[in-house]
Input
Amino acid sequence: MTREAFAFTRSFAPAEPTELVVDRHYLLYASSGALRLEAEGQRWLLPPARAALLRAGRPVLVAIPHTATTASVLFHVDFVPPPVRDLAVFDLDPLARALVAECGGWPEADDPLPAYPRAMFTALAAVAWRLAEHPSPVVVPAGRSAEVRTALRLTEERLGDEVRFEDIAGAVGLVPRSLARRFDAELGMSWRAVLRRMRVLQAIEHLAAGDTPVTTIAHEVGYGSLSAFNAAFRELTGATPSHYRTTFTG
Output
């Protein structure tokens, strides 16, 4: 029989969105870089020192904007209970990070786990499943209709510019009022709220990719004022951009 659980570390080159489906529950821990994940009509960002929990058999779109390194832990569906969500991204506490490191010494194999690593994987699942009940707020709805998904794509492409809702609506062939109603109905938030979240998500990607100054990142994602950028970033993440970057070391 294959092992009840196993772990491995892997580095990834930048890649376009690809559908990922695995037959085990999958704990993905980012150690460097950032991954974009999409499932259940929502888009998440997985920056360093965060983890994603993916339910077995459910498709997830994965994109890699910059080179990334991750630690992966896979659990057989008969070894642990199913996660509550198809996908959740959350912070790992020190205990969970220590357990991920400890489980890293047990790769995929045909023989069952000995008692000690079995206990470590069991403990990791218990801690990670509990943490996943409180996912990160750094998420953007993906939209259902072609018009809203196109509007989201165009908005993201123009984050560094003075993007206007009227221009986005015109580009998708709707009057602003109609597109605004679509956003409320499909996403549960306004276009302006989505824009703020997209800018923070892209800022986190830049923070994770290197040591670019925060002021430069603020301008790159469309903020003319550092104070406005800091306020928007803190509102969503609970931290300033500078402090958030320090958490990438786990």
